Amino acid sequence: MxxxxxxxxxxxxxxxxxxxxxxxxxxxxxxxxxxxxxNLTPVLRQFVDETPARTGNRTQPWVGQGVWTHFMPLxxxxxxxxVPGQGAxxxxxxxxxxxxxxxxxxNNQNRIQYTRGQNIVAIADPDEYDxxxxxxPGNAYYNVYMTTxxxxxxxxxxxxxxxxxxxxxxxxxFDDGSPQDNNQTAIIRASYDGGQTWTEILRWDSDVFSDxxxxxxxxxxxxxxxxxxxxxxxxxxxFALILARNxxxxxxxxxRVTGNPVANARSISGTVTRxxxxxxxxARFVLTPTDGSGAITVFGKVxxxxxxxxxxxxxxxxxxxxxxxxxxxxxxxxxxxxxxxTGLTIAPLLGGDANDDDSVDLFDLAALIETFDADVNTxxxxxxxxxNADGIVDLLxxxxxIGNFDQSGE
Length: 410
Ligand SMILES: [Ca+2]
Ligand SMILES: [Ca+2]
Ligand SMILES: [Ca+2]
Ligand SMILES: [Ca+2]
Description:
Layout: E1 30-35, E2 68-69, E3 77-82, E4 95-98, H1 99-105, E5 120-124, H2 126-130, E6 142-147, E7 151-152, E8 162-170, E9 185-192, E10 199-204, E11 217-225, E12 234-244, E13 249-259, E14 266-271, E15 281-289, E16 296-302, E17 307-313, E18 317-324, E19 330-335, E20 341-345, H3 362-370, H4 395-403
Parallel strand pairs: 14-20
Antiparallel strand pairs: 1-13, 2-4, 3-6, 4-5, 5-13, 6-12, 7-12, 8-11, 8-13, 9-10, 9-12, 14-17, 15-16, 15-18, 18-19
């Protein structure tokens, strides 16, 4: 929180989100990828620096509750090495937090306008970070990044591809440090086919004289047209908030990549559960065509009732390998040559694979011992060895590991 008088003056509205063009393609739009951050619920931890004493009791209702985490959805990465100083740990880098807790901790300041964000949202908030223990020192910048996994786009019409998300952005610049050169900037970059090259697809900054200036947009649905290179089969996105000091925030939720499947594209759906844990979870589906062509990896969500859908892949016959982050894999056949595959039933995924290498062995035991007795509120906690996803690594998890010891995925 900081003095409202420091806010930037309103300015002319510039084009922020790219205009939505009429989608092309042969069939209805599907979600190739989605992320609402809700599967992080079991790993949310209690506040550490945003205590009621510090926040004027505004965070009192969250005493004892899980409200934030720096753990990521399956396949995501985050980089907080550009977070300087010793500000509030909750906001050191992209954080995944209960939206209402965030609003209260930061004393609102228009964060409450973000009604499109629901429950857990992704937050980069240099303002609230800076407001603790001296926060961002001197002329340092707050630079934070997070990256999605590679998203399969090989069976949709390229011109139909969109990145869509619900955004909350508040700019501020040129008021901190000496010289006052902070220019809080949001950037999204796309990288195709796992390459080292990145294409910028969104830039918002806090400089009222810049072509990229983005005024307050605290509750916006953003839809960006992608322009993949010809033949691209995967895309990943990086979300960066950089060059900030005591500035405002950028938050996102309900991220989707959408596209229109090409003729002959297929969907594959069914049910899969975990043997040792309940609730929805993130899973990786690796589809290996029986014709010897390259495998396809799809990061998907499995609902609490076990249902999943791989939305758009070529019409081939596949071996489908399904795996959660800390389970062994299962393999089933899915022949999608003639049509969509539905009702695929996959036996429960066995726990015990703490390090996600598809076998249960001494490495997993070592990982479990390293964090034994830790719960989500302990810095040493890791979700990997928490096989039953109950927020603590203990004898129940050890029993699961022993029960599946020396086994490998299918
Ligand atoms: Ca959410
Ligand atoms: Ca500032
Ligand atoms: Ca393992
Ligand atoms: Ca556990």
